[in-house]
Amino acid sequence: MNVFRLTKLRHFCTVAEHASIGMAARLLQVSQPALTRSIQRLESEFGEPLFDRSARGVILTPLGETLLPHAKAILAEADRATEDWQNLRGKRRARIKLGISPNFLRYVIPDVLEDFVADYPQASIEVQTGSGEQLLAMLAGAQLDLAVAIVWRGTMDAALGRVMDVTQTRLAGLTAGVYAPATHPLAQAARATLEELGGHRWAVPYSLSMSYVFQNVFTDHNLGAPAQVLNTSHLTLMVQTCLRLNLLTIVPRHVVEDEVARGDMVPIACPPLALNYSVSLLTRRRSTSTRALNDFVESLKRHFDRHEKPQG
Fold it and tell me: How many domains, the chain?
């Protein structure tokens, strides 16, 4: 594919992303008439419109919707080819779009980024957070190069069945446990039964099916599911809310390690709620991996292996 077609596809994707010719023109640093002509030339190649235009902006036609994921994948591959060529010339450049579970915002990923940028000083890394299902959708749409997601009891398998172009590689295993603020009535006990825990209010992280796994532990023991006052992917918000409202929570140790070290939160042993889960690396099956991306993945594997094994 020649450079002119790539330019038109990049113009098309930018307009589609922002639903505005004006916004896209500013971001691409071209004039609106020039961008309009570029889109029209691409439409003439396909023989029908890619956008419906109105006073409210532009929206994709069915043809545009069909073309968009393919155009994004083509541009991603072209960018990777350029990156590899630059690295062969010793420039050590990399542009990586990473999606992660909020679990790892301050755990593992900062270490990986520090090591990677030391090796690739001209790297540009874009990080987005989301649930496993959200990360899958972004990865399938070529908005991400790779994603690190939490998998609860094989629940990712069903989601992957709907996204055939994505592969899953296990990085580590973890166990989530129960934690309580130091002021909570159960904090001094150090152990509790499901019956005791079920009578209290909870904050549960939102991730792929975690809240359902949590509830099913209680229903499997013929108990009613406890009240979930807060269900969120914003873990800082969750921890602070637990402390302010005296809520129980269920998370991996690293999420509350600072609070535990300060004595603000304490673990409560309850074997049925020691929930095992996996951390998986998600990639697009048909994408070409660059040297820089391979190095980033290897760094991920090393750090998860080093930090996660003690957690079981």
Answer: 3
For residue 33, what are the domain limits? 3-71
Q: In the Cβ-directed half-sphere of 172, how many Cα atoms lie within 13 Å?
A: 21
Q: What is the CATH number of the domain that holds 100?
A: 3.40.190.10
Do 137 and 282 lie in a common domain?
Answer: yes
Check whether residue 307 and residue 251 sit in a common domain. Answer: no
Query: Are 183 and 271 part of one and the same domain?
Result: yes
- Residue 11 and residue 47 in one domain: yes
Task: Report how far residue 194's alpha carbon sits from residue 176's, in angstroms, rounded to the nearest whole number.
Answer: 15
CA-derived radius of gyration, the chain: 23
- pLDDT of 96-140, one tens digit each? 889 998 878 777 888 899 988 888 888 888 899 887 778 888 887
pTM: 0.64
pLDDT per residue over 214-224, tens digit each?
888 999 999 98
Task: Please indicate, yes or no, whether residues 49 and 134 belong to a single structural domain of this protein.
Answer: no
Q: Are strands 202-205 and 248-251 parallel, antiparallel or unpaired?
A: parallel
Q: How many other C-beta atoms lie within 10 A of the C-beta of residue 54? A: 8
